Task: inverse folding
């Protein structure tokens, strides 16, 4: 009888040990499953019945962006890369027009954008060593945009000059959270996110929480995050004046990186 009790106790201890080990492995597996790297497939705007879809190549670089309203195509932009991963051409097709941009790399920090094969219609994109845009000049339109970034690659401010004025008329500052940015795992050159992705670079490393224009708050964002730490829905508030405020809800759908 005593031998049976000892055997039963041993079996029970072994069972508990196995159960704890199994639970530990399950917990590790669950933790692994909830820390995936994600890239956005679409942004949905239910208030406007709109959706922005993103398309990728096998290196998780954006190759296409399209906006649909009530399922009807509004515009589509296609992005082409060379063998070194540099953007060489974009093709925009809208409801009433189409535009081709070709890109030439004059140096490590200067890109010339040629519009519709017209050598007299050029823009200049100045980038830093991390391929973040720091200046965008539209020569023919007299536009000059300067971008400020922090060490994390977040766009923290911009100054915009329009027409042929020598004074920067608009000055913006941006504040961020510490969560993973919507586009933080997209492998396209960083300047593309400002030029073509929704949000104009405000969701690259982290996510914007507020925007200030000439000391006045003009945008505010509140997020709901998924288990992986990315925004899956958020509210955006645009403040045009004391009695002129617009709000919208944005839903984000992701897939895991390849």
Result:
């Amino acid at each position: 009888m005593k031998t049976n009790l000892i055997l039963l106790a041993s079996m029970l201890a072994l069972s508990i040990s196995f159960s704890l080990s199994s639970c530990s492995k399950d917990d590790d597996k669950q933790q692994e499953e909830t820390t995936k790297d994600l890239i956005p497939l679409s942004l949905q705007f239910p208030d406007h019945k709109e959706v922005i879809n993103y398309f990728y190549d096998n290196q998780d670089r954006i190759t296409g962006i399209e906006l649909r309203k009530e399922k009807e195509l509004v515009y589509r932009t296609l992005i082409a890369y060379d063998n070194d991963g540099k953007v060489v051409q974009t093709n925009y097709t809208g409801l009433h027009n189409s535009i081709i941009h070709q890109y030439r790399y004059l140096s490590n920090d200067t890109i010339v954008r040629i519009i519709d094969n017209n050598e007299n219609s050029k823009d200049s994109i100045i980038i830093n060593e991390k391929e973040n845009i720091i200046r965008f000049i539209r020569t023919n339109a007299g536009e000059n945009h300067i971008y400020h970034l922090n060490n994390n690659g977040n766009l923290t401010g911009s100054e915009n000059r329009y027409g042929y004025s020598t004074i920067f008329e608009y000055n913006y500052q941006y504040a961020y959270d510490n969560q993973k940015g919507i586009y933080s795992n997209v492998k396209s050159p960083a300047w593309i996110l400002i030029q073509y992705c929704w949000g104009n670079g405000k969701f690259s490393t982290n996510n914007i929480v507020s925007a200030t224009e000439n000391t006045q708050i003009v945008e505010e964002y509140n997020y709901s995050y998924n288990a992986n730490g990315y925004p899956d829905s958020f509210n955006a508030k645009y403040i045009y004046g004391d009695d002129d405020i617009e709000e919208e809800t944005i839903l984000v759908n992701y897939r895991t990186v390849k």
Observations:
- The longest strand covers residues 244-256.
- The mean pLDDT is 87.
- The first helix runs from residue 2 to 33.
